[in-house]
Fold each of these.
Amino acid sequence: MAISLTKGQKISLEKESGSGLAKVAMGLGWDAVKPKGILGFFSGGSREIDLDATCIMFDAAKNIIDAVWFRQLQSKDGSVRHSGDNRTGAGEGDDETITVDLTRVPSNVTSLIFTINSFTGQTFDQIENAFCRLVNLSNNQEVARYTLSGGGKVTAQIMSKVYRHNGEWKMAAIGEPANGRTFQDILPNIIPFL
């Protein structure tokens, strides 16, 4: 059974999955807010919103080792892969997925930070049903889910961190709002969470 994470909560991925994790997927899903009232009727429904999922790989000295996002769909070592850019949020379930083979993550990588950015600049108060979730790919079971609530007038969210601690992988729900169209724009906001 998946844990519904709250901001700042930390879990051991291996304990929650019942075994050592080898491959995980971080899914991101969202819907555009449908306009309300008579103006919503005339505007033809919801607006497309382009959210982007990113995984940034850091070492212990807080240096970026690599980043996987819509402009680079695979890490140089092949341990992290992005499903591709969904520019609308259309469809059910995960709109973008980042898959991580934890057994192949280089030993110098100590933290994986997952972020979302509104590339088209809409703020999170214009986005509905936004979530991220971690899935154990050995059995397709959802290990943890974090609902991106509260939105607000920001264009980015530092979602979560998967990190090594005493030889095992753990996850921390961050849920920190920020502003920026890409992960580079919010790097100063990310560093305190490493």
Amino acid sequence: MAKTFTLPGPVGPLEAVLDGADIGEDEAAPPAIGVVCHPHSLHGGSLNNKVVYILARTFVELGVPTLRFNFRGVGRSAGEYDAGRGEQADLAAAVAWLQERCPGSPLWLAGFSFGSFVAWQAHRDVHATRMVLVAPPVNLFDFGPPRPVDIPWFVIQGAADEIVPADAVRQWVATQPNPPHYIELPDAGHFFHARLNDLRESVSRWLTDRAEENPMRGSDP
């Protein structure tokens, strides 16, 4: 089940798709809610990206209604690309829309490539309780100095990524005060062609293994 609509954004409407169960006043509160951020707006990234769709599908399969949305300037979303600054405000607006309809439900946040940069930068502000980063572009964007992440988080990287070198991601992960669970998929490129099922299974396994954890507890290395 998927619903396409627009939600209020900081510079105008944001195009969005809600995957999964119905939400609202007459529905039972879901165990969590999910939001997924798409790759680079100027290089074809959108809510319809295959990795974004797979991440949303993975959350939904675990009973978590999930919002995909277009950053400013993409599709029917108003505004212009803002190098990650305004996109963090877009993410906050998307989260606020979903939380208004599911108050009290923990937030699972995910991002792919540029979307993982936005998610990383904003995860504290939007009060995420789980975070999944796919191919974080640590070689292309300023992720800032190492800082502790106080929620369980997972980083998954293609070992054959032609855009974001796996070595760079591995080194970045190693600097984190509270390291994420980290895996590399052998022979997987940046867009995980022919490896999307492996991506889905890896994310699902990590989330399932931690289903009983306190959502505010830090992850194991």
